[in-house]
Task: structure prediction
Amino acid sequence: MRSFTILSQPFECLILFYLPIIIPITMANQTQNRFSWSPKVIFSIAFFGLLFALYFMFNRKPAATPGLMSVSQVAKEKDDLIGKFVTIRSKNIEQLSPTSFAVRNKRFFIESKPVIIINASGRVFNLPTEENTEVQVTGTVRQLDIPKLEKEFSLRLQDEAYKNYKNATTIIAQHIALAPQVNDIADNPSKYYNRRLALTGKIENIKNPKMFTLDEDNLLGKQDLLVLNPTPAMAVNNGQTVAVTGIMRPFRVAELEKEYKLTWDSGLKKELELKYKEKPVLIADTVYPSRVSILD
Result:
């Protein structure tokens, strides 16, 4: 269940509104022999209680998604993050060139400083055509120094594309992929079949060295997402927060066994077919630790 840092439901905000009314009236009834509460006092307290409730209703923030850092935080803390590996997720992305993008965090009418994304993953990435679909980027933070970046990462950058972003915070992306809303995946998984996705969450159940489930705040309702990692490059542990990129497809035992030369025993095969047949499975090509957990 999604939680919030201050208030998790509008109902709680209503409590904040009514408490300033209920408490004074109760106190007034209990202490009417000593003094009385005027309607003006009660109205003033109720009015400020309403403002307080509205403030939190419109400014509450989702609890931090494991592994994600906000765009504005990266821009603000550039000096401390230079050389570090971070993961961000945003839908406010502008294409600058075939291999670069500008990302800004937008809240109401305020925009954060842009963060430049340079795709060094070796794969072509096209921005999503679906409205409000986020993109997840993982890479190393650098300052935008084109000659230095070209030499260090063997890149060929078009200077003209960056003329308005001198010395901007830059992420050299090793991984970049669509990061759709979790509810969208749960409601219509077939929409994402055969597409490259990026998800971040906690490992819940390791079935064998090549298979585990990923919990991303109840990714698929009560059932976690099954991840198949055919060529694991690292050992994983239960409860570990990881970022996973790969292709989403329906779970079909026979196809997966043949394609990835898997040797599942009959017990595991039966269990998987009963629980996951025709349900989404993410075929991972990269699994890596996700270290930062700050989110706007």
